[in-house]
Amino acid sequence: MGDAEAIVVGSGPNGLVAAIALAQAGWSVSVLEAGPRPGGGTRSEELTLPGVVHDVCSAIHPLGLASPAFRAMPLGEHGLEWVQPEVPLAHPLDGGRAALLHRSLAETADGLAADGRSYRNLFGPFVRSGFDLTDDILSPFTLPQRHPLALARFGVIGVQPATRIGRLRFETEEAGGLLAGLAAHSMLPLGSLGTAGFAMVLGGLGHMVGWPMARGGSQSIADALVHLLESLGGSVVCDSRVTSLDELPPAEAILLDLTPRQVLSVAGDRLPARYARLLQRYRYGPGVFKIDWALDGPIPWSNTEVSRAATVHLGGPMTDIASSEDEMARGRHPERPFVLLAQQSLFDPSRAPNGIQTAWAYCHVPNGSTFDMTERVERQIERFAPGFRDLVLDRHTMGPAAAQSHNANYVGGDINGGAADLRQMVIRPTPGLHPWATPVDGLYLCSSSTPPGGGVHGMCGWHAAAEVLRRQPLGG
Q1: What is the pLDDT of residues 172-200, one digit of tens each?
Q2: Most exposed residue of 65, 82, 158, 227, measured as fewest CB within 10 angstroms of its CB?
Q3: DSSP 96-118
């Protein structure tokens, strides 16, 4: 580790971005990673057949292109190449119908027939605001906000439940289903406050920057970040699990890419009692049940237009998706789960050899669930792609326990670092305008349990590094 001035514990995108930002400011930085490879939620492995590459966790990355942190870093010079599918998102419906979210707002609206004008009116202001708005959303406690009017206009819609916006704005199952699928990324019941905001951000980004993937797998994102860090003199040390801050050498700053449960474990008695109690109250959200497949050919969608999209939302109309997410929130396992599916190899042939295709999918389950959702997920795929199961050469499943074993930040299978309801998006993980700083001098948090929350954007680490530089000028 040498004599690092900053030590980052955890090498997910947030930890790596924090390390890079400090290294760019002249700090010597070392990142410690418990696993054999860096990356956190951006790792890829051969989970099924030899030579077939699957994304272990994250797969599609609209926030990667929108993130101010990623935009400020020359990741392309360090090996990262984005692949844009022809269509960002498809949402099939029964009877061979489908709604498509195109890069073009107008083309998407035209495809929604009677709801086209309402869709254009809903998403148009967001898309026209562009990065002016998304940069403010991803920097929630930066004061003053640079574009308060655009942010306020977004907030009027975004704070509402997705089901309410869907009922007021749309008549067709196509538009309502498209909105519901976007909102369900929140992992909240769609009648919850703030779920419309998730739909607005993700749908708007589909028009602004697309829903791309990293060529060769999401591991390429982590590899590019590591390569950039090393070019700045920083280092990443794998197989270095930290169980206590007492194991670390002295440093000007220690940044933890850990959720509150791990922070409490490694920081121990160093944390003031009141702060520790606040971390203990932090709430984790639902878990995920994930499946990866190696397939003997493309998925046979009833509507062939769905093959133009790398990301597919499976759940039918808004009422079905809302019902599924409500059941899950009540601790049940829905018969027809909402399924998020990616078919990366159609657009990135490097993922699989000899004509094999890959598919990646997950559904939401209660935190810590041990229920095997394989049958229900595959039945939902068959609903819109009859014959899918006949193509399965091999599959790999990962429930909440396996997800947490892969990445300790995924507590109970929660991939977002904590429940993302409206209250906890503001108080994340503790109240205040500087949640990246702890009461302990030189100790900071940079995981997705801090603002702006989950997703592969690195902004939690970006803000944490800014907090370090604000409070601790190098050598101060």
Answers
A1: 999 999 999 999 999 999 999 999 999 99
A2: 227
A3: GEEEEE-SSHHHHHHHTGGGHHH
